[in-house]
Amino acid sequence: MELLERRRALIEDRLVDVVDGIEPGTLRSEVRHATLSGGKRVRPMVTVLSCETVGGGAEDAVDFGVGIELVHTASLVVDDIIDRSALRRGTQSAWAEFGYGPAIVTSDGLLGEAFALFSADPDATRVVAEAMVELGIGEATELSATPTNEDEYMTLARRKTGALFRAAAELGAIAADSDGVTVEALGEYAERVGIAFQIRDDVLDAVADADDLGKPTGHDAALERPSLVQVTELTPEEANARARAEADRAIDALERVEVADPEAEAYLLELAEFVVERDR
């Protein structure tokens, strides 16, 4: 756990540095609220650990990790506006705290700071741009065309959640100067972890307590949003089994990677287990 805590502190310190450099002060306060009010930092940890797994250093990947966290946070700000969700990470969501206009500007500011971090590497910029295209298609699909079966749901989950996870791992491989085969294998690992994460999120929305989860529950059903539980009428236990299958495929993909740091790889394997067992 010491390795994880050191990496998490590295990410958090750099995240604070980036946020503290934002001007003007009003935007800085709004971005700080959205970014530093909590969060598991799963995606930046994937970036850093992926880099270390294939022979890079944590410091090589931390800016990319912070960048992907900023992109993720920007997407959450917009999600909360769309859903009229007043709670995020156990505190007021950006729009509930500051209003709709400032929340939209906050999302723009987050994306600007993120791409400033990616801009030094064209491959990094391309990977994140592709992920954002997928994310945008997923978000638009969710609003306009509810999936009618499990295959359609899985495509949506890949776009809405898996794409940013894939980008997170690919950024780590890019930071380590990995070849294309390694980038792809780590990307598949993370995409499947992301899909498992989303399925588990659906289950938690259906069965968890809002105070334990740190955000409103029952949202998917109330808004008629596509949830695996709603779309397929699977039981929560059956949906969890789908998440487990994706996690197992993620582990299979990771086995194709030539590992330079077994300790870092062990944490990636642990993450694949965590996303299907988490309670919040």
Automatic annotation (TrEMBL):
- Which cofactor(s) are needed, names only? Mg(2+)
**Keyword Transcription found:** no
One annotated GO biological process: isoprenoid biosynthetic process
- Is Metal-binding among this UniProt entry's keywords? yes
Q: Which UniProt keywords apply?
A: Isomerase, Isoprene biosynthesis, Magnesium, Metal-binding, Transferase
GO MF term set: isomerase activity; metal ion binding; prenyltransferase activity
Per the record, the domain of life is Archaea
Matches recorded under Pfam families = polyprenyl_synt
Can you tell me which family this protein belongs to? Belongs to the FPP/GGPP synthase family.
Query: PANTHER family annotated for this entry?
Result: FARNESYL DIPHOSPHATE SYNTHASE (PTHR43281)
Q: Return the protein name.
A: Isopentenyl pyrophosphate isomerase
